[in-house]
Structure prediction request, 943 residues.
Amino acid sequence: MGAGGLNTKGRHTQLGSGYLSCTSAFSGSPQPQPCHPNDILPLTLTSATQELFGCRCDEDVTGDNPYKILRKEDIVQDMRMRAAVSDFSPMKQLVLDYPEDELLLVYDRDFIYGSSFYLVLTADAKERHLKPVVALGVEVALEREPSEVFAAQKTSEPQPWISLGSEQEIEEESVTDSRPRLKYRISRVRREFGAPIFFSDRNAMETKDGFIECTPYQDKNFSLKQMERHTGVQTIPNLKSSSTQTQWTYPRSMCTQYEPREFSEEKKENCLQSEKLKNFVNSVASRFEIAIQQNEIMDVFFDDWKALSEEDSGYGRKADPHLKEYQSFTDLHFSKEKTISNINWHPTINGVIAVAVTERLSFEDRINGSTKLLLNPSLILFWSFSDPINPQLLLECPDDVFSFEFCPSDPNIIVGGCMNGQVVLWDISTHVEQLQGTRTSGGKNIAANTNALNETPVVRYCAVSGIENGHKAPITDIQWLPGTFEVSRMGVPMENKNGICVQIVTCAPDCCVMFWDIRAPRVLQTMADQRKQKVEEKPLENPHGVPNTFKHLDLTWKPLIRVSLPKIDTSGEYSPLKISLRDNTCDNHTGSNAGEYLPSLFLRKTRLQLVLSTTFCPQDGELVYTDWKLEKDNDSGRLFSAKPSHRFIIHDGQVNTVRRSPFFKDIILTVGGWTFAIWKEGVTNGPIIQSSCSQKKCTVGYWSQSRPAVLFIGKEDGNIDVWDLLEKTHEPSQTQNITATQITCIKPWIVSSKQHLLAVSDHLGTLHILEIPWTLRSPSSNEKLSMSKYFEKEVDRLVYFEKRREMRAKEKKDYEAEELRKKTPPVVQVLPLKKMREACNFHHRYT
Amino acid sequence: MAEVEETLKRIQGQKGVQGIIIVNAEGIPIKTTLDNSSTVQYAGLIHQLVMKARTTVRDIDPQNDLTFLRVRSKKNEIMIAPDKDYFLIVIQNPSD
Prediction:
C-alpha cells in the first residue's frame, strides 16, 4: 500500500471551493502542510502494494506520469485479502462508495499532501485531474500565477445556497394570511328592498355604549423635561450697547459790531500836553529826520540796471521813425467826389473803421445842386481790413453827417449829427456778426464778397430827432456823456447807476448846446399817451428792417436841455463848434461823490455872425471855458446858463480841435489857424504851451494814445507833423507827407501792443491807415512824469510872467507918476535929482 | 505843546511825507494828520506789528530793544519809532 504523491512541478491546480489555503510557491518547494482538499485522500502505499497494483515509484509512475487508474474491484479484493493490513483499509467505505469502476491514484512525488500517493475520491475530481491537466498545460506554460488564479475563479461552478438567517427577515416582512379569510353572507327579506326608509334620532347618551369616546389626555411625551440638549456654543467679544443724548447746536446767524477805541477830545488834549509826549517826540524826531532824508537823497531800492536797459533797447530800433502806410481805403462807388468828415474806429471789433462821407461842396453849390443831393443818399461807410475794395456796411443818413460816435457802453449804437441839425441813431446789432466775420475770415470770403458787391448791407437809421426839435445848424460836434453820470432836466449832474451811456451832448453853430437822452421819456407820458403808445406798438414792425431799439424816439425826439451860453462881455450867445467835457466822476461807485461833480464844458466857438448856421467862413477862433450849471432867473423863473468864466482868443482861425490828453485829465489841446496850443485847466492866464506859426494851416490834431508827449497835427497840404514835446518844442520832430490834399481827420488806435495804427482821412475821400513805428508808440521811461514836470514848469513860467507883468505895470505907473511930478517945478532941488536918479536906476534895473 | 507841534510840522514838511500819527501804548491814536478811518486802521495794524517786532528783538537778546522800524512797500514807506508809552508813525512816499 503505497501512498500517492503528487508531482507538482509545473502542474499545480486549485481544486474546489472548499479549498483550504494551500497555495504553494511555484518554485516547486514541497509544502509540509498536511492540508488537502476534500476529494482527495493522501495515502501511503507499501512497496508490496505498489508491485501488486503496478504503481511502483519511479518505475510505473513517475513525475511525468503520476496518474494511475486502479480498478475498484482490485482494490476491494485487496482489502478483502489483506483486511487490516491493506493500505486501502482506512478508506474502505470511501472506495465502496465510489460510483465508478475505476479510481485514480496520483503519485505525489513531492509530498505535497503529506504522502507519496493520493487517491482521488470523486469522479469529478478524477476528470479534472486527467483532463484539465492537458488543457492547463498549455496555458500555464504561457502565463504566470495570478492569471491562473482568475482563470480558475471564472470556471467555478454554482454551489448550493447556504442559509445565513436572511430568510427569516423576508418571512417577517412578507404578508401572508395568518388565518383563513372570513366570509359573510348577509340576507334580507325581499319585500323590504326598496321600501321607504324611516330615520329617527336617538340620543347617544341614553343607551349604554351608545358611543365610543376618545377622551383627551395629556400626553406625557410633551411634558418631558429635556435634561440634555445638543447645542453649539461660540465665544464672542464682549459687546455693550449704550446711548447718550447730545446737545444739538444749530447754526444761527449772528453778528458783532465793533468800533475802534478812541480817545475823547479832552483826553487827547491831556495827552498832548503831557510832558512825556514832549520828551518822546523830541527823542524820536531825530531818527525820523535821518530816515526821511535818506529816502530823499536816494531811493535805495531803485534798480538802475533795469532802467538802463530801457534806453538801450531804444537805440537799436531807431531805424525807421516814419509812419508806414498799412492800408488805404477808397470806394469809387460811394465816396467819389466826396470828402471824409469824421473817422471812428469800432471800439470792440478789430480792424473795422467807420468813416462819414460828405459832399465837398460849398454852401451855394449845395443849394444849387440840392436836387441832385437828394438822389445821392449820405452814408457812413464801414471798412474792414480784410476787404479794401468794398465797404462792409453802409449806414444811411438823412443828410451829411459831420460827426458821429460809437456808444462807449454798447458799440452797436451809433449816434450822428447831420447837416440839417438832426440827431440820428443807428443800431447795427443785426450786422455785427457779419462785421466780425469779415475780420477773421479774410481771404476766404473774397469770392463771397464779390458776389455781395451789390449787396453791401445798408442800415437805415432807427431814430432821428424831429427837425423842429433839433439844431438849426449843422451839428459840428456830438459826444456821449460817460456812462457814470447823467444830467437831469434841471441841468444837475447826477450819478448814472447803470453804467450805460444814455445821454448825448451836441453843439452846433446855432448858439445851442443840447443834451439828449436816448431813453424813453417817462415823465411826459400821461395815461392816455401810454395807452395810445401801447396800441401803436403792437402793429409796429420793422418797415425797413430796422430794429425797434429807438422807436420811441423816432421823429419825436426832443433834447433834454437846451443850453445857450451868453457871451461874457457883450450880449448874445456863443456859437460852439467843438466841445470837450471833463470826466470828473470818481471811480468808486459809492455814489456819495456825485454831489461834488462839476461838469466843465470847454467850448470853442467862432466869433462870427450869430446867424451863422450856413456858412463856414473862418475868421477868429475863440475858446470859452465855463463851469456850467443852470440857474434860475429870479424874474422870469426860466432857467438859463451862467455866463462862462473865461474866453480866450489865441488862434488865428477856426479852432477845429479841442481834445483832452488821455494821460492828463486837465491838459487840453486846441488846434486852429496856423498854430496849436496846450492848455491846463485852472490856469487862466493863457495856454501853457503855444506852438509857433507853421507854414500851412493846421486842420486837425490828436494826442498819441500811448506816449504822453507826442501829438499828431494834420495840415492842409497833406502833411502830418509829429510833435514830441520832450524832444523839441519849436518845431515838429518829424513831418511826413501822406496825401496831396488837406487832411480832414486823424484818429489813432491801439490794436495790440505791437501794432498801433493811425487812421488819416483826406479831402479826396481816401482813408489811409498808417502804422505807428516803435519810436513813436513806446513811451520812454518816466515819460509821463517828465511831461507833468514840464507842464508844471510851463505853468510856473506863466505865473511868473504874469507876476512880472503886474509888477512891470505897477512900475510903469510909478514911473509915469514920477515923470509927471518931475514936470512940475520942484520944491527942493535936491529931491528931484535923487528921485530922477532913482527913477533912472529903476528904469535900468527893470528893462 | 508848541514844541511838539513845531517838531511835527517839521517832519510833515519834509518831501514826500503823507501823514503822521501818534499812537499811545495801547494803540489808540492821539494825534494824526490823516483822516479818521485811515488813522484807525494804521494804528490798529501797526501796533500789533510793533509789538511783534519788539518781542522778537527782545527774545533774541533781552538786553536789546527795538528803536526804529521801517516797512518799505511798493508805493510808500512806513516808519515807526516805538517808545515806552507812545509811538510815532510816519508814512512817506520816497519816489515822489
Observations:
- Helices of chain B lie at 2-13, 36-60.
